[in-house]
C-alpha cells in the first residue's frame, strides 16, 4: 500500500510539473508573439518614416549627416580619452616614483610649492609663515580651526616634503583677529568627480559605471533595481553631456542648461542689420518655429514658439541692455516655461559689412534631458539656429522673405502666388 501511495504521489507530481511547464511555455509563446508583433510594427513605422516618397529623401539625408557627425564626435572623444588616460598613467607613475624616492628639493622651491597649494585650502594664507629645511616644513601663524586638518594633509602631499611641523596658532573664529579678517572660504583640493567639468577619464568611468548600474537594475526589475537604474542613467547622461546635475535635470539651472554661440557676417550696413533685429516682430519672418512676437511696451515682448510634437510654448522677455547699433540683450521673465537669456552684438567689418555675434542660453523643461528628448522629435535648437540665421542673412541681403517662414500671414501670401 505504501509503495502504491508513493507511486501515485509521484505520478501526480509529474503531472503537475508537466502542467506548469505547459502553462509557462504558453505564456512564453504568447509573450514572444506579442514582442514580435511590437517589433514588426516598430520596424514598419520606421520604414514608412524613412521611405516616405515626399519627405523620405530629406530624412535620410539628415540621418546620414547625423550619423557622420556622431562618428566624428566619437572619434574625437576616443582620442581625447586616450590621451587623458595616457597622461594620467604617466603622472601616477611619476607620483609614485617621487613618493618612494628621496628627492632633494631646494628650500625656496619647496616653500613656493607649499604656498601654491595653501591657497586652495586656507582662506588667509598671508597669515601663515612657511619655512623649509632639507625637506622638513614648519608652519607658523594664525589659522582657523576648520582649516588645520586640510592644510596639514595638503602640505604632506606636496612633492619633496618629508615631514611637517605644526606650530600654528589655532583660532575658533576670526573675531578680534586682524590677520584673519576678510578672505573667503576655499573649496579645497578638487576631486575628479566634484568639478563642474569632468575630464575625459572621469566621463569614461562614469559612463561605464552607469551602464553597469542600468544593466543590473534592468535584471532585478524591482524598486531597488529601478533606483539603481535611475542613478546609472544619470551617470551615463553626465558622462555623455559633461553638464552638472542642475543643467541635466533643469532643477535650479537658471538660464544656462544649454548654451549657443554663433557668429554670422551679413552683406549690409550695420544700421540696417540692427534695425531689423531691433524689431522683434520680424523674427517670425525668418525663424521657422517662432509663431508670433508682440511688443507689449516698456521693453517687454510676448513670444509664441512651436515646440516638439505639435506643442506650443509661450513666454515673456524683457530687454536688459540696448545700445544703438551695438548690442541688444534680453532675459525671460520669471516663471517662463523656457527660461532663456541672450546677447547680440553688432560690429562693422572693414569692407562695410556687419558681423553679428549671438550668445544665447536657455533651459528647456527637464534641462538637458528635455533638450535630448526634443531633438528626438525634430526640435534641435542648435541646428535650427543655423538655419534661421541663414534665412535672416538672405532676407536682409536680398530683401526677399524665405519660403519656409513661420509667419502665417506671410505663408498665406506666398502660397497664393
What this model shows, in words?
The chain is of the alpha+beta class. Helix content is about 50%, strand content about 20%. The chain has helices at about 1-50, 55-100, 105-120, 150-155, 200-220, 225-240, 245-250, 270-280, 365-375, 380-400, 410-415, and strands spanning about 130-135, 135-145, 165-170, 260-265, 290-295, 300-305, 310-325, 325-330, 340-350, 355-365. The strands form 2 sheets. It has a 7-stranded antiparallel beta sheet with strand order 4-10-9-8-7-6-5. It has a 3-stranded mixed beta sheet with strand order 1-2-3. Strand 9 (about 340-350) and strand 10 (about 355-365) form a beta hairpin. The longest helix is centred in the first third of the chain and has 49 residues, at about 1-50. It is extended. The termini are far apart. Mean pLDDT is about 75; it is low at about 250-255, about 365-380 and about 405-415.
Amino acid at each position: 500500500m505504501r509503495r502504491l501511495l508513493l507511486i501515485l504521489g509521484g505520478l501526480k507530481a509529474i503531472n503537475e510539473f508537466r502542467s506548469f511547464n505547459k502553462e509557462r511555455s504558453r505564456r512564453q509563446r504568447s509573450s514572444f508573439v506579442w514582442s514580435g508583433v511590437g517589433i514588426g510594427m516598430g520596424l514598419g513605422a520606421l520604414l514608412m518614416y524613412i521611405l516616405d516618397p515626399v519627405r523620405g529623401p530629406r530624412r535620410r539625408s539628415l540621418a546620414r549627416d547625423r550619423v557622420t557627425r556622431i562618428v566624428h564626435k566619437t572619434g574625437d572623444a576616443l582620442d581625447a580619452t586616450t590621451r587623458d588616460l595616457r597622461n594620467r598613467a604617466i603622472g601616477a607613475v611619476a607620483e609614485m616614483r617621487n613618493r618612494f624616492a628621496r628627492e632633494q628639493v631646494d628650500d625656496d622651491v619647496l616653500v613656493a610649492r607649499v604656498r601654491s597649494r595653501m591657497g586652495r585650502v586656507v582662506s588667509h594664507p598671508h597669515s601663515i609663515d612657511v619655512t623649509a629645511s632639507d625637506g622638513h616644513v614648519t608652519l607658523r601663524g594664525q589659522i582657523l580651526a576648520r582649516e588645520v586638518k586640510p592644510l596639514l594633509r595638503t602640505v604632506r602631499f606636496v612633492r619633496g616634503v618629508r615631514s611637517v611641523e605644526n606650530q600654528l596658532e589655532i583660532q575658533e573664529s576670526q573675531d578680534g583677529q586682524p590677520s584673519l579678517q576678510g578672505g573667503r572660504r576655499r573649496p579645497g583640493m578638487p576631486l575628479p568627480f566634484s568639478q563642474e567639468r569632468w575630464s575625459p577619464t572621469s566621463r569614461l568611468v562614469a559612463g561605464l559605471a552607469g551602464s553597469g548600474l542600468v544593466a543590473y537594475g534592468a535584471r532585478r526589475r524591482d524598486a531597488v533595481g529601478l533606483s539603481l537604474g535611475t542613478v546609472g542613467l544619470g551617470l551615463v547622461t553626465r558622462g555623455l553631456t559633461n553638464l552638472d546635475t542642475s543643467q541635466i535635470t533643469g532643477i535650479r539651472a537658471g538660464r544656462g542648461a544649454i548654451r549657443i554661440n554663433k557668429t554670422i557676417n551679413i552683406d549690409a550696413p550695420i544700421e540696417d542689420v540692427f534695425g531689423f533685429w531691433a524689431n522683434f516682430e520680424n523674427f517670425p519672418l525668418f525663424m521657422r518655429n517662432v509663431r508670433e512676437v508682440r511688443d507689449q511696451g516698456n521693453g517687454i515682448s510676448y513670444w509664441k514658439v512651436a515646440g516638439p510634437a505639435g506643442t506650443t510654448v509661450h513666454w515673456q522677455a524683457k530687454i536688459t541692455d540696448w545700445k544703438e547699433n551695438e548690442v541688444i540683450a534680453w532675459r525671460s521673465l520669471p516663471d517662463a516655461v523656457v527660461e532663456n537669456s541672450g546677447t547680440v552684438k553688432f560690429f562693422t567689418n572693414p569692407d562695410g559689412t556687419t558681423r553679428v555675434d549671438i550668445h544665447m542660453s536657455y533651459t528647456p523643461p527637464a534641462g538637458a534631458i528635455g533638450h535630448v528628448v526634443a531633438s528626438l522629435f525634430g526640435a534641435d535648437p542648435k541646428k535650427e539656429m543655423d538655419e534661421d540665421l541663414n534665412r535672416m542673412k538672405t532676407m536682409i541681403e536680398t530683401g526677399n522673405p524665405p519660403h519656409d517662414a513661420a509667419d502665417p500671414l506671410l505663408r498665406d501670401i506666398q502660397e497664393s502666388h
